Amino acid sequence: MAQPEYLTLDGTRYSTDKLSDEARNQMINIQAVDAEMARLQQQLAIAQTARNAYVIALRTAVKAPAASTEQVKPKKPRASRKPKSSE
């Protein structure tokens, strides 16, 4: 990663070329963590968008009548008819 020319820490501005190796390493670590946090925020935004789509789909599925979820009552068998007497 490219290092900035200056670093501002606690309100004090430092020239990065005058920092110790340890300070530069810590600055690089902070840059790496910042990049990872940005990547994770993008992943979270993607996941939130997918979740919103699933919620919309769930609402649609719950509100729409579905034939497969309806309870169909079986018809009762009819008693056989007695034949009419021919009198």
Which key terms come to mind for this protein?
single chain; 87 residues; mainly alpha; two-stranded antiparallel ribbon; 2 strands; coiled coil
Q: How is this structure best summarized?
A:
The chain is mainly α and 87 residues long. 49% of the residues lie in helices and 9% in strands. Strand 1 and strand 2 form a beta hairpin.
Plain-language structure description:
Residues 23-50 form a coiled coil. Residues 64-87 are annotated as: Disordered. Residues 74-87 have a biased composition (Basic residues). Keywords: Coiled coil. With 87 residues, the protein is mainly α. Helix content is 49%, strand content 9%. The chain has a domain at 20-65. The protein has one helix at residues 21-63, and strands spanning 6-9, 12-15. The longest helix has 43 residues, at 21-63.
- Largest sheet, strands/sense/barrel: 2 strands, antiparallel
Low-confidence stretches: none
Derived from helix and strand composition plus strand pairing, the structural class reads mainly alpha
What global shape is seen? rod-shaped
Keywords: Coiled coil
Biased composition (Basic residues): 74-87
Coiled coil: 23-50
Region (Disordered): 64-87
